[in-house]
Amino acid sequence: MRDLRKRTLSDILRIKQVSKFIRENKRMDGRKLDEYRDIEIKTGVVKKAYGSAYVSLGDTIVIAGIHFETGTPFSDTPDQGILITEGEFLPTASFYAEPGPPTEEEIELSRVVDRGIRESEMIDLSKLVITPGEKVLKLFIDFNILNDDGNLVDAAMLAAVSALLTTKYPNPEKVAELENDRAELKDVERIPLPIRDIPMTVTIGIINNRYIVDPTLPEEIAADALLSVTHTKNDEICAMQLLRGELDYNQLFEILNIVLEKNKELRELVLSKVGGG
Amino acid sequence: MSKSKEEYIRRDGRKVDELRPYSIRTGIFKNADGSAEIRLGGNWIVAAVYGPKEHFPKFQISQDEAILNCRYHMAPYSTSERKSPKPSRREIELSKVIKSALEKAVLLEAFPEMSIDVYIEVLQAEGSTRVASITAASVALADAGIPMRDMVVGCSAGKVDGHIILDVGEYEDKEGEADLPIAIMPNLKKIVLLQMDGKLTHSEFREAFELALKGAMQLYEAQVNALVSKVKEMGEIEEAEE
């Protein structure tokens, strides 16, 4: 449960305060309503993984790591590699985060990130095939929330995308020559991932009928609705999730216009910090 | 695009803006406090509501409002390849988004310290099960006599062969270019479930959204009719008894 309202008086007051500030078009941390917090992206932070990224969005911290294994393709996609995305809160993330099986919030977060990457067709999965119908590479995106101060979807997407952009993967042609690919996979020649698109997710919160970009955790709790929208590089919408709350029909289209602008800004930032594309 | 919008006929013979045949019934289970069944094309989904009732375990009680529990589940025989009965990650996510949509309609504050359980079972799946589920669950909640701000009704739209289409069927879900499931409160005009995958331009999205709204309003009528006909039947039974 990420609901701070159930915790202490100071949390309850903080949430009331958020709402009061927004009514005056201000935010508690001094940002404009449509402004992201400082974004830090570092790639290659975990050398053992094929690709990795550390992202901080204000006080929210996410790490993503990329791994590969060989496996059997799905019967309906014999000529495609397999993409698997799993994300979890580490117990370090907040008072409410505890070790244990994934919660519904963690599963939703992983699946929203997965859809953004999958539906944008960011990775050309046909280049992950070793022997069609028999053996393919499985690409694992694993991410963790190390500290939760809201807007986990945007932060996790940034981490996953940045990690993928800098990932080098085992050359499938060379993997085909191996006798024991499980043991030898990590020693195979590595080549850059076949990147076709760069999806960007922007989450908007509605507080007092105002649209808030990059909500902090108290802002998320004060929000009447939270909507995540992912765009491709060609400004198509490729994934969407109403994470919480309710929206008027016209609010939806107003949000889409804000997201369209913001996703360009975010994409430029990622390209300047990570490169690729 | 080879054919104009009017001419385009879908693989199952439908026009772009046509729902599959549908029916909604309520009061189908005697033991539940409320229940409903929806058939939408080959989809066959039942929902049962138990509650409001005392919540267990006690330490989880909410003093301000009732807790709504919701399980969306697909039967192992509901799909052409057996689905493991263990809840999948997909089912857990859908249970969450359906719960969060229904919570907006139910007057939870009327039942502090209580819980309301909503169980949805997909007996046969043929595309757009989540929105059909929510449509049935909302009827089951109303059938249980639980006070609500509005009904919740779901419908999907999508894109197939370059055409924006209403009510995404099984083949259209697998081979289509986009899927947009929504659920609304039709009188309050609020969106309470919104997901999308695939690729749509902003103008295609608007077209798809408006189509889904139109479909939802049609299904809303069927929800109301199901509830009205159950009340009428009850009236007839009472008259017969007198």
What this model shows, in words?
The complex is a heterodimer of chains A (277) and B (242). Chain A is of the alpha+beta class and 277 residues long. Chain A has one domain: 2-Layer Sandwich (Ribosomal Protein S5, domain 2). Chain A contains seven helices and 13 strands. In chain A, the strands form three sheets. In chain A, strands 1, 2, 3, 4, 5 and 6 form a six-stranded mixed β-sheet that branches. A four-stranded antiparallel β-sheet of chain A has the order 10-9-11-12. In chain A, strands 7-8 form a two-stranded antiparallel sheet. In chain A, a hairpin with a 3-residue loop joins strand 5 and strand 6. Chain A is elongated, with a radius of gyration of 20 Å. Chain B is of the alpha+beta class and 242 residues long. Chain B has a single domain, classed as 2-Layer Sandwich (Ribosomal Protein S5, domain 2). Chain B is 32% helix and 31% strand. Chain B has four helices and nine strands; from the N terminus they run E-E-E-E-H-E-H-E-E-H-E-E-H. Chain B has a five-stranded mixed β-sheet. In chain B, a hairpin with a 7-residue loop joins strand 1 and strand 2. In chain B, helix 1 crosses helix 2 and helix 2 packs parallel to helix 4. The N and C termini of chain B lie far apart (65 Å). In chain B, 48% of the residues are buried. The interface between A and B is medium-sized, with 31 and 29 residues. Strand 12 of chain A pairs antiparallel with strand 9 of chain B.
Characteristics of this structure?
heterodimer, A: 277 residues, alpha+beta, Ribosomal Protein S5, domain 2, 4-stranded antiparallel sheet, 31% helix, elongated, B: 242 residues, 5-stranded mixed sheet, 4 helices, 32% helix, globular
Layout of SSEs?
The complex is a heterodimer of chains A (277) and B (242).
Chain A (H helix, E strand, L loop, with lengths): L8 H15 L15 E5 L7 E7 L2 E12 L10 E8 L14 H16 L9 E3 L3 E13 L4 H14 L2 E3 L1 H4 L5 H4 L5 E3 L7 E8 L2 E4 L3 H6 L2 E7 L5 E9 L1 E2 H26 L3
Parallel strand pairs in A: 4-6
Antiparallel strand pairs in A: 1-2, 2-3, 3-6, 5-6, 7-8, 9-10, 9-11, 11-12
Chain B lengths: L21 E5 L7 E7 L2 E12 L12 E8 L14 H17 L8 E11 L4 H15 L9 E8 L2 E4 L3 H6 L2 E8 L4 E11 L1 H40 L1
Parallel strand pairs in B: 4-5
Antiparallel strand pairs in B: 1-2, 2-3, 3-5, 6-7, 6-8, 8-9
Helix pairs in contact in B: 1-2, 2-4
